Structure formats: C-alpha cells, structure tokens
C-alpha cells in the first residue's frame, strides 16, 4: 500500500473521530421558562379588592394557518395549540383572577365520581362514614376568544452589496399574531368587555460571502452568516399576557371590578398603559402608510443625537496613485420622522498621493438620512446632501499648481453614501458610514485636467449619543 494512501486513511479516521466529539453549538441544560417582555407589567398590576373567579373552557387557535414554507406544503400549525394553558397561567400570575379547571372538566368529574364511590363503599378506621365531597367552585365570569389571525410577510425587505466576488446581504421579515379576549357574565350571558392585542414576529438573516479566483485554477469560496427568529410561542404568550393586562385595566375603568386601593390608579403600570393606548388612538391615521401596520412605533418620535466618527479618506482624481489618509467628522442629527433625519456635519482631514500633492480639506454640510430599518436595533440608512468645503493644496513635488485667479478657498460640494448603526443602548449607537464627497471643481489636486471632477471617498466609524429619543 502506498504511503499516500495510508496518510489519507489515517486522516479520514482522525476526522471521523473528531466529528463525534465536535458540536457546532454547546449543549445546554433545561432551564426555567423564559418570561415575556410584558410579564413584569402583568405581575405589577395593583391588587384587586377581591380576586375574580373565572373559567376558561378553551382558548382556541382560530387562524386555520399552517407554517409558512418556501419549499412546499407544511402541515404544522403556525401558532401553538396550547394557548389555553398560557391564558390560565397569565390569569393566575396577574393576581386578579382565580381560574377554575374547565378544559379537563370530564377528567375532573370522573375523578370525583371515583372518590364519591369509594367514600360510599368504605368507612373510616373508626367505622364512621367518610364525608362527602365539597361542591365544585363555580365562576361568575367566563373568558372566551382565541388567536384570531396570523399574518405572514406583513413587511419584508433587506439590502445587499457585492463587489469583485466579496459581498453580503441582510433580509428581514415581519409576521403578526392577533389575540381577542372577552369576558362574559355567566348569569346573564352579557359580554362585559372585549380586548385585543397584536404582537409582531420578526425574522432576520445575514449572509457574507467571498467568491474569487486567487490564482489560475484556484478558487476561494467562503460563506458565513446567521439568522434569528422570534419564537412564535413566546410572541403568542406575550400577546395573551398583554390581553389579560388590558382586560384588568379596562374593567377597572368601566367599573366592572375594583381596586383594593383607589389611589393605585396613579400607579406607573396603569399610567404607562393609558399613555400607550392614547398613542395608538392618535397614530391610527398612519395605518395606511406604515408597512408594519398600526403599532406604538408608528408614532413620530423625534430625536437629537451628537456623533463623532474617525475616518480614512482616499482621493480619486488626476493622479494615479492616491494615498489613504485620516480625518474626523462631527455631526448633529435631528430626527424628523421614524424614517428620515437631518444631519449637520463638519469634517476635517487630509487627502493626496505620495509623490505630487497633499491637501487639507474641511467641509460643512447638511445631509438627509433615510432609515430603512427604523424599528430595528440594527439600522440601515442611505445618506445624501451638500454644502461647502475648503481645501489648501500643498505641492510636494516642486511643481506649481495652475490655480484660478478668482479662487476664494471655498467650493460647493455634494455627498452621497450608505451606512449602518447598531444600538448598544437606547441612547448610544455604533455607526459605520461609507460616502463620497464630490466638489464641484477639478482643482482639488491643483490641476484642471480631464472631463471628470476630483472627488474623495470616506470610510468612517464612531459613536452617536442621543440626547432625546
């Protein structure tokens, strides 16, 4: 057997042995169930005058939806079939309700029959009859409703860029689940109150790849990426808990039930709920033009931010070998709408090449910023605008620049670019930008030559601190 073949066999055995011990993701132990984002508000509700006995027979999936699939038919349901259990736990966690068992009522009655039969046929150790079972607890309120809609792809979008075999892309999709909950009087059958809540379900996928020939017949291909999806079960749970919170507060406002302390109406949880409800009512006119429909994010929230970015700059003009030089940008941003901001920017830095010239440039500009993902922690934006710039070319080759006689030191400049911002905190974001500044002159490098005006590229990274948000 050749040595090469032996080497391949040993290498194969080594890789096979490693594969049994290698795991792409670490294993984790079972943990206590996660809490939704509204769970804290639910358990922080003010205490009731007396807990309300309620019964829930079934809180059903009424959507008729199956899981969305791009490859074919999927017979798995889009939402959980265990919403009744979620609702009962939310009722119990709120502290306002005493839920009684009704979903498994037949099992409960069968068990009570067994106990009753046993007590009739047997006696206690002292010969006395065993006591009868106490009566079942009945409720004055019956809770009905269900998950009434699951809408897929209410918003979908993304972006991508590829140059010379290197590129990346991001895709975002938004689904929505809606829950209705109503309280019914068991004595009269009257519907006392109906509430409904909506929860968005966000999915995001990011891919980065490289596809390039590094040598003749040598192809380098590299791909990486990740995707994140909000668990639909957690989103349904959050919508149900929000519905229970709404039912409690709306019932108090309508006088259906009362607080143990009437001054608790000024509690932070109730105030926050009323503010949110008022924002929804005020924002209803935005429903037709918001891609995601009506939500608390639809309300315009102006913001003011201060940004500082370090830059690397490269000139593109009449000389063929430009240098990469440094610079800095300082900006003040004012949010006009969720999707649009104005930024006032001041920049300073150097551009040039290694043999002919070096120029110090400074600029003052006003730019517009269009935010493609305004409600995401990771935001993509396009930017463009204009202003004025000052430059002072230095001849480092011994040649004289042929300048215009009416040169005043300031020239109009246009700019355009794109970038992304990731929020570490609601008031602090990391921002990356690539843009091009295009002065309306061909004398940036000291010579007026050719049909293309001089310009220079900026790649910047820094921070933005938001004063209001």
Describe the structure.
The chain is α+β, with helices and mostly antiparallel strands and 469 residues long. The protein folds into two domains: 231 residues, Rossmann fold; 165 residues, Beta Barrel (Porin). The strands form two sheets. An eight-stranded antiparallel β-barrel has the order 8-9-10-11-12-13-14-15. Strands 1, 2, 3, 4, 5, 6 and 7 form a seven-stranded mixed beta sheet that branches. Helix 3 crosses helix 5. The chain has six helices and 15 strands.
Structure keywords:
eight-stranded antiparallel beta barrel; Porin; alpha+beta
CATH topology of the largest domain: Rossmann fold
Unreliable sequence segments: 283-301, 400-408
Q: How many H/I helical runs?
A: 6
Mean pLDDT: 81
Share of helix, binned: 10-25%
E-strand count: 15
Radius of gyration: 33 Å
CATH class categorisation of the largest domain: Alpha Beta
CATH superfamily of the largest domain: ABC-type transport auxiliary lipoprotein component
Going across the biggest sheet, name each strand in turn: 8-9-10-11-12-13-14-15
Which of globular, elongated, flat, extended, rod-shaped describes the shape?
A: elongated
CATH-level-2 architecture of the largest domain: 3-Layer(aba) Sandwich
Through-space gap between termini: 73 Å
Strand content: 35-45%
The helix/strand order is: HHEEHEHEEEEHHEEEEEEEE
Q: What is the domain total for the residues?
A: 2
Structural class: alpha+beta
The biggest beta sheet is recorded as: 8 strands, antiparallel, barrel
